[in-house]
Amino acid sequence: MQLRHEFTTQAQKTFERLSFRKVSSGVYRTMVFAAEGTTLTDVHRFCHDECTRNTCCDGFVLNQNVLNGGTIMCGLLSYPDMLLCSEADWDVSGLAKANRICGAGVTYNKLQKQGQNINQLFLTLYLILSHHIDAVKETFVALDSSAVVVDSERDIPSLQYWIFKHQFSAQEAQLWCLKRCEEEELCHVADVRDESSVYFTCALYPDTQVCGAYDKPLRQACSPVLPQQPHTSLTVPVLFPQRKSMCLLCVCTRFRECERRCDEDPCCRGIGYVRDTQSPGSDLLCLTLNSFGIQTCGEGERTTWRVQDCTPSKVETGVYPLGWYEKPEPKAELTSVFIPAHGTLQGEAVTTLLGSDRKTVRQFLGVPYARPPIRALRFAPPQLAEWSVTLSSCLQPGAVESSATSEDCLYLNIFVPSGIVRSAAVLVFFHNPSGEASNDTPSLLDGSYLAAVGNIVVVTVNTRVAAFGFLSTGSTALPGNAGLQDQIAALKWVQENIEAFGGDPRLVTVGAERSGADVASLHLTSPSSRGLFHRMLLMGGSVFSPASVLSVSIAQGQAEALARELGCPPSSDPEQLGSCLRAAPAQDLNAAQTKLLSVSGPLQAWGPVVDGVSVQGKPSMALMNAGFHRADLLLGSSAEDGLISRAKRIKNFEELQGRADSKTAFYEALSNSLGGDDANAFVKAAATWFYSMQHSPSPAGYNVFSQALNNATSELQCLQKVFISIDLFHIVQNVLNLYFSSPIYTQYPIMTNVLKIKPRNI
């Protein structure tokens, strides 16, 4: 049963009511109202106004049902991919049960109420069908076909595409063609031709005008040259939008005035400061250029081999400052945010590609949230930050000394998309990129892309890991958990300052992966983390990991083994042991812990301990006793997660152990590192295969293995990056953007196919 409600069209000039009742995807915000407190008309107007104000909104869905006393839901749409359940669909009433996505067309009968499961009273869709084509057309103007010179003999560069009619209408084909022209830097003319019963042809051409040609006076208009007569053609604005006579000013002042005009015009690509010798009085002209077209006939030495017609120009450009000038590329836009108690933070605006679209994201990189944990502050809890501008990734096992890694690493990065509304959702991701990350090879997590896709504020945080973050003797001298306290310090910084960037401190989601997820999961039970976050996203780790919390005895044994490896004198005094470890160079300490991890197995790593402060007991007991914070939680895991990076770093084991001639010892260490006796059979088979080839135990033989392992893991590493990028994309788009202020209650759609792509037993 459907109750038809009619609405006036006075306030719906840009929306069109469709015959479809469902959408496959695209709902990014829902608002639910109690039926007794409002009317369908009021909710429709509210939904219409919300979508009008939001630049990302392409339409909305309106739904009324009788559940829970009756509710009316408004769902805002952005880029819906498929519309379903048209009113014009054929009726299968009585043929089968309602097992289709649109139901079986069951109708309501007052005399036979039994068996009716109809809850829906009203459901329809409204879309801005002309929004995208109108927005794209704003950057183009119609090309006057009478002004086009057709020269079929001329070889004009072009790009051609076939757009099939069974997939696209004529309007959609034109939109696609114009968007493609926008993406091509050299595209100046887009021509959509309908010459086939099967497809449309989209042809893109560069600027073929030769304005200011050598064989014509400058004042004479130049026509574009195309190989055939255009059909439906649009072009970017004219080449010379401004032509200003400069006869009343001196030469230098005229030139500066011409430059200023171009600087003030965001579309200006350059200027022509020329004298037209055939105009009355030989006026000086300032021409602002939107495009340079095709450059021919340079002013250098000419030879008889020229193909173009390069007869002497009627335009005088040879005497300085006369000539053609290209506007320099604009410097990256700087933005600033004032941080209370610290000062002004300078950022940079960058453009992020989202498929065929572009979005500006403001980046604030290398923001310190704690003092550098070096010298006396090594292994100590984080201290209040002092301003700095250096961004470094935290040292971790296997990393070598480089500009990309440092013990001074307690920094965070903030990514804010343009046009974001105030009080936006915030994702705080605890992420320590590997030592291989650099400016040329960026780390796995792209905060600017996540911010642009999810339209949220993204904060990526570096924290101390391994021995630097979790070395402990169970004493007050070395209590441990410094890495966990780094995370708490970063969350407190976000609570205090994220509003300055447009984020809402009440809508914070904590995210982490692998061992970082093990540590981050402890915030669910830590009293120090209460109120610092509201949702949690854990990938490849959780509070249930056997390595999430270590016993004091294991932690003490690890600290003593590290001290022995570094040559510290035997001592039962934690103060003396701590002094020795703090005095060791960071790279020596890192090499020592890498060596120990190589032979200890996958679960014998440094981790949090019960310290009575940030970790007051075993997480399992806290969960059993309901001693955890109420928060939405999303978990994901992957078999054999982390073996790729571990396998790449174990290659240097023979050098660290000083016994490069012992193939058996190397195999034992490799086997332990990949899981020991309980390792997956697939993993052990891979290691056994290499040694079954009877490779030489010499250093040269290990070099062969090293190269083979590099080749094997490089492809897996690329796949791993793709998998995790896909995971993060689904999470941001489907989960993080579900924050909203509902008048009644929060309603979440059912999550399906999230984290659906994972590596298999790598």
From TrEMBL:
Keyword annotations from UniProtKB, A to Z: Glycoprotein, Repeat, Secreted, Signal
GO cellular component terms listed in the entry, alphabetical order: extracellular space
Pfam family, one: COesterase
Domain Carboxylesterase type B: residue ranges: 337-729
GO terms, biological process: thyroid hormone generation
Keyword flag Transcription regulation: no
Record-linked InterPro entries: AB_hydrolase_fold, CarbesteraseB, Carboxylesterase_B_CS, MHC-II_Gamma/Thyroglobulin
Subcellular location: Secreted
Gene3D superfamilies named in the record: alpha/beta hydrolase
Family according to the record: Belongs to the type-B carboxylesterase/lipase family.
Matching PANTHER family: HLA CLASS II GAMMA CHAIN, THYROGLOBULIN
Protein name (Swiss-Prot/TrEMBL): Carboxylesterase type B domain-containing protein
Source organism (scientific name): Hucho hucho (huchen)
